[in-house]
Design brief:
With 812 residues, the protein is mainly beta. Helices cover 3% and strands 46% of the residues. The chain contains 5 helices and 39 strands. The strands form 7 sheets. The protein has a 24-stranded antiparallel sheet that branches. The longest helix has 7 residues, at 659-665. The chain is globular, with a radius of gyration of 30 Å.
Length: 812
């Protein structure tokens, strides 16, 4: 029932073509497309009764957060309902999955994303003479994407959004031959983009209609109710990004001397980004079940566990990079070739053109709280304009070899020190404290006491003036409720790097058959973590119930986080067995079987496993417990592809001269591409963090064996094997356990060639994507305390039901 419907494309007209004149070649093409991608979504929503405050049919008790006593009849009295929170609860759609329990995938609907891109390509090649050539290219793609709403009120829908994207790229390359053995290539590339993401929450006045104050009234709020689907834009209410500039200048010189081919060169890259970022201009409000027994009830009672607001000033971020290299391909003998090289990478730390950038110094005493830790600002009081210090020793040697032992045996190997770049992604909208309308408000005891009542609105926030940027900015006295969260770059951060080694053995057999056995090892150090690392956690020896805000290392702030912390480490070992039959006798195929193991201590930017919450981070003071199987750890994987031309036909081994017989029986081919892979690791986490430490996360206790001999979609692992840890403690579960579902994908094709004449062939194509119509399921929910704990409720991203498509191709 969760298999998404057919995905289809509607293609517009394409025009264009080449023009050749003397020594110049021109090419231009335009293509307009419209792509529609329907998607099925199963989400957790409350029943109609629960949305109105009636929990008489629920299996849990709803408590009054003021007295701690259960509400009579498990129904919240009308006079206790928060006038704002109770209205927000009614924005949920009604359940539409018969028999599904409250909050267990009980709303299922189809939505669609529509993308309309227009592509332009222009190219010119000009030959001045035999030693000088010029190449130029222009690319453009303006596009619009919209995702329709699932919820009755679009502003409350977490999926509905509109994106406007504009991309332009121009590149020119000049080739000059100084001599037959000395060639230079100079290139300049200019890239300009704009990206406007506008959520359905933008441009409404619903906040004012329901009485929500303290936020920008033109945005619908983001409402996070633990155990249920988020209401409103989940992370980005609006972002106006552009222009985004990325210029690159490259020069590469090739020198051929006897047995040496030497390449050397350098590059410079300019990067800038102008951003007006409003991720939570309408406010973001989180509700948990600590005080009430139900996060939904906490919303209806207006019992906010934490809330924030962020809308930045225009931020023009900058960062440039430089690279230099030299490499020698040395043909030592007819059997042995060596590759020797070295590269030096220099990445400029992030900076902002108008110094709208903050940092953090954990040592000075804050004048407001009389505790360590102050926010600092670029360009003020001797602070550098750069987000952190330079890392100038990123010099990476490389070595490789290829040895031809015999005409049938070849051995290849190599090693390198590779640098991954300063950050794990672009950094245009970070470290903006002091240059935005911003507020962060957190319950001092994990929701037992409300951060504030929703009926009173979000506490006042405003954009600070230049005179406000002092050493006491954002701080409050110890014991007062904090208002500011700080994120910053570690001043002494290192650029991440990888040690990589490979060894490969190839053997050629008769019949165009090739067998390849190879090893690859990659070992990462100081890799940037995608999730900000909190350093404002209560020490584990001080954990207790109640108000623990004053026990935090920096109690004057609600949180203090390191952006792209350089703490990541990884270890990959993989063995690959490949078999390839090159085309002969109408048959070709290629198969690769990989056995591998990938361990790390921080989630990647894109994880196959999709860890819940904050990825690997839990206890800041026990980071060794973050080590485990990566979310991209796939232990076994097989890829197989083949094309086989049936030997019957006018131009094939079994020659058919009769046209009628050839029309029916000749010219057939079949093809297939398949992938089989084992599942990724699962990571247990608590839906509600009860450690009272303000940590990034908490894991459950392991109370038994989580493995099941016969897992099902509704119970993939033994959920009884986990238990909630005691309050004020961290669970003893490791980072990972078990495996999620594996993956099977088979695409097939049936081709028929019709010989119109000796020079003209018409090919008929019948193709099937996911010909087995096999659903590849995503990992189960591993958040202990969630109504769907242990259940699989969706497919992996991109999985689609069987698609059949027919086509024809004319060759002449």
């Amino acid at each position: 029932s969760n298999i998404p419907p057919l995905r289809y494309n509607l293609f517009g007209a394409s025009v264009g073509g080449p023009v050749v004149k003397d020594k110049t070649f021109f090419f231009f093409t335009y293509e307009g497309r419209r792509q529609v991608a329907p998607t099925n979504r199963a989400v957790n929503v409350p029943t109609l009764a629960e949305a109105q405050g009636d929990y008489s049919g629920a299996s849990y008790i709803v408590r009054d957060p003021v007295t701690g006593n259960p509400f009579p009849g498990n129904v919240i009295p009308a006079n206790r309902l928060d006038p704002v929170g109770s209205k927000l609860a009614l924005f949920y759609p009604a359940p539409n999955v018969p028999g599904a329990a409250s909050g267990k995938g009980n709303f299922n609907a189809n939505t669609s994303s529509r993308t309309s891109p227009n592509d332009y390509v222009a190219r010119v090649d000009h030959t001045f003479n035999e030693n000088n050539r010029l190449y130029g290219r222009f690319l453009a793609e303006p596009s619009t994407s919209t995702t329709s709403a699932l919820f009755p009120v679009a502003a409350a829908d977490p999926f509905a959004t509109t994106s406007l994207n504009y991309y332009y790229n121009a590149s020119g390359t000049y080739y000059h031959n100084f001599s037959p053995g000395v060639i230079n290539e100079a290139r300049y590339t200019y890239t300009k983009r704009k990206a406007f993401a506008i959520g359905s929450a933008a441009g409404t006045n619903i906040a004012s209609q329901i009485g929500l104050t303290g936020t920008d009234p033109s945005f619908f709020p983001t409402v996070v109710v633990q155990g249920f689907q988020t209401i409103g834009a989940p992370s980005q209410q609006q972002r106006l990004q552009g222009p985004i500039r990325s210029d690159a200048i490259n020069d590469n010189l090739t020198i051929v001397r006897n047995k040496h081919t030497i390449k050397l060169g350098g590059e410079y890259r300019y990067s800038s980004n102008l951003d007006k970022y409003s991720p939570t201009a309408g406010g973001s409000f989180t509700f948990n079940n600590v005080a009430t027994g139900s996060a939904l009830a906490a919303l209806q009672l207006g019992w906010v566990q934490q809330a924030s607001l962020l809308a930045t000033d225009p931020i023009l971020s900058r960062a440039d990079s430089y690279g230099f290299y030299i490499q020698d391909d040395w043909r030592v003998s007819p059997k042995l070739t060596l590759n020797l090289g070295v590269r030096w990478d220099i990445d400029q730390p992030r900076w902002e053109k108008n110094n709208r950038q903050n940092s953090f110094d954990p040592l000075p005493i804050n004048p407001v709280s009389n505790t360590p830790g102050i926010i600092t600002f670029s360009g003020l009081n001797g602070v550098s304009r750069f987000a952190h210090g330079w890392d100038l020793n990123n010099i990476g040697p490389r070595i490789g070899f290829a040895y031809k032992a015999t005409d049938q045996w070849v051995v290849r190997g190599g090693g390198a020190l590779l640098f991954a770049g300063e950050y794990d992604q672009a950094t245009p909208i970070v470290a903006n404290t002091g240059f935005s309308r911003q507020g962060s408000f957190v319950s001092p005891d994990n929701g037992v006491t409300a951060a504030f009542l929703l009926r009173n609105g979000l506490p006042a926030t405003s954009s600070p003036a230049a005179a406000d940027l002092t050493s006491g900015f954002g701080a409050v006295a110890v014991g007062a409720r904090p208002t500011t969260a700080v994120s910053f770059f570690n001043q002494n951060r290192r650029t991440g790097y990888l040690y990589q080694a490979s060894l490969d053995l190839q053997r050629q057999f008769a019949g165009n058959l090739l067998i390849d056995i190879g090893y690859l090892g990659t070992f990462g150090h100081h890799l940037p973590a995608p999730d900000a690392l909190s350093i404002n956690q209560v020490p584990t020896n001080l954990l207790r119930s109640g108000n623990t805000q004053s026990l935090r290392p920096f109690p004057q702030f609600s949180n203090v986080q390191i952006i792209a912390a350089d703490i990541g480490a990884s270890k990959f070992n993989g063995l690959n067995l490949g078999v390839e039959k090159r085309y002969s006798g109408g048959l070709l195929f290629k198969a690769n079987y990989t056995v591998a193991k990938l361990l790390d201590n921080a989630a990647s930017r894109n994880e196959r496993a999709g860890y819940p919450g904050v990825g690997a981070f839990t206890d800041y003071y026990n980071q060794a417990n973050n080590w485990g199987r990566s979310g991209n750890d796939i232990r076994q994987r097989l890829i197989f592809s083949t094309v086989y031309e049936l030997p019957v036909g006018r131009r094939r081994q079994i020659r058919v001269t009769n046209k009628a017989l050839d029309f029916v029986a000749g010219g057939w081919s079949i093809g297939a591409v398949s992938e089989l892979a084992t599942g990724t690791a699962l990571s247990p986490a608590m839906l509600t963090n009860t450690s009272n430490s303000f940590s990034d996360g908490q894991r459950p206790n392991v109370a038994g064996d989580p493995y099941l001999e016969s897992p099902t979609i509704s119970r993939w692992f033994n959920t009884a094997a986990f238990a909630a840890p005691a309050v004020n403690t961290f669970g003893n579960a490791g980072r990972t356990f078990g495996n999620g579902p594996g993956m099977i994908s088979v695409d097939a094709s049936l081709l028929k060639d019709f010989s119109v004449s000796e020079r003209i062939v018409v090919q008929f194509r019948a193709e099937a994507l996911n010909i087995l119509n096999h659903p590849n399921f995503a990992n189960p929910n591993t958040q202990f305390g969630s109504p769907t704990f242990g259940q699989i409720t969706s497919l992996i991203s991109g999985n689609q039901s069987r698609i059949l498509q027919l086509g024809a191709r004319l060759s002449f």
